[in-house]
Automatic annotation (TrEMBL):
This is Branched-chain amino acid ABC transporter, amino acid-binding protein. It comes from Fimbriimonas ginsengisoli Gsoil 348. Belongs to the leucine-binding protein family. It comes from the Bacteria. The keyword Ribosomal protein does not apply. Signal peptide: none annotated.
């Protein structure tokens, strides 16, 4: 039996619901193909770190030999701590905090690390969009935002670009008129907003009122359908880095979406569904390779993964301390949602 820790309540519920579907699809396909009867147990982390630990402990008590989850780094850290004593392997799906795996050889992930996002967007802005003058807006209350901004800034400057303004704000802010006025004086060609969609949408709308030709860029904190409503017309054409977008022409994704539609109808509503599918499938294939159904053998098999082809990219973990060199995509916001712009295979 393997266990999935998913957020079935709270702010992360959309990602949790998709996670359950992704894991179910992977397990059903595996059982049908191998004629095995691997059982999937789901436990609710309810968007809370402490509940993530309790959910993991429950699954371990029930006999899970491997755990999938979670989508947030704080929750994943607690899941990993629950698994510490038994060294039960844990595969995180969307937990991108850089130091998460440090000292935890039983913890793996199928997503990139946050610092790669700033680097990739700087390369895209300078090399693909031809932008030379950029401003940065950082949510100084969020280490995630600070990290993305720092890496965008250093990479953009190394490439030859100029950062003409460095603005800060705090999560929960809704009024950005003063920030917009200061940016207007500097006239950047682009503004990189490294925080979350809650503030990015209103900020883009207010900056756009005085600088309608500005290009807006962000990270995967923008990855929510709500940003189109909060950003309105102003945010159309904006771009951000993320793990997955359904419109990606990547062949493995095309095949995956056909199977997803057949089983559930429609498309995944978040990147958690596809990434959880990949994490679950990777664990199941490692289970096939392991010498026994012990947690230690499964952990060693996962650590030896080379060239696993998932719907979100190829994952190699051997010799990488649980960290894949993971494909990243840039998406463009349009009226009807997110559309693939470019993929970076080795961010």
């Amino acid at each position: 039996m393997i266990g999935l820790i998913a957020d079935l309540d709270g702010d992360l519920k959309p990602w949790g619901d998709d996670s359950v579907l992704g894991a179910r699809l992977a397990v059903d396909e595996f059982n049908r193909k191998t004629r095995r009867a691997v059982k999937l147990e789901v436990s609710n982390s309810a968007s809370k770190p402490e509940q993530g630990r309790a959910a993991a402990e429950l699954l371990l008590y029930k006999g899970a030999i491997g755990l999938i989850g979670g989508v947030a780094s704080g929750i994943t850290s607690q899941i990993a701590e629950a698994a510490r004593a038994t060294k039960t392997p844990v595969i995180a799906t969307l937990a991108t905090r850089p130091d998460l795996l440090k000292g935890r050889d039983w913890l793996f992930r199928v997503c990139y690390r946050d610092e790669a996002q700033g680097r990739v967007m700087a390369r895209f802005a300078y090399g693909d969009l031809g932008l030379r003058r950029a401003a940065i807006a950082t949510d100084v209350t969020q280490p995630y935002s600070v990290l993305l901004s720092n890496n965008f800034r250093s990479t953009f400057r190394k490439l030859g670009g100029e950062v003409v303004a460095d603005e800060s704000y705090a999560g929960g802010d809704t009024r950005f008129e003063s920030l917009a006025a200061r940016l207007k004086e500097k006239q950047p060609a682009a503004v990189y907003i490294s925080g979350y969609f809650n503030e990015a949408g209103p900020m883009v709308r207010q900056i756009h009122e005085t600088m309608p030709k500005t290009t807006f860029l962000g990270g995967d904190g923008w990855d929510s359908a709500e940003i189109l409503a909060s950003g309105g017309e102003a945010i159309l054409g904006a771009m951000f880095t993320t793990s997955y977008v359904a419109s990606d022409p990547y062949p493995a994704n095309r095949s995956f979406l056909k199977r997803w539609r057949k089983k559930f109808g429609g498309l995944p509503t978040t990147s958690a569904g596809p990434l959880t599918y990949d994490a679950t499938k990777l664990m199941l294939e490692a289970m096939q390779r392991s010498h026994s159904h012990s947690r230690n053998d499964l952990r060693r098999a996962i650590a030896g993964t080379v060239g696993f082809k998932g719907c979100s990219g190829t994952v190699t973990l051997r010799g990488r301390h649980g960290e894949p060199d993971k494909r990243m995509v840039i998406v463009r916001l349009k009226r009807d949602g997110q559309w693939f712009a470019k993929a970076f295979e080795h961010p």
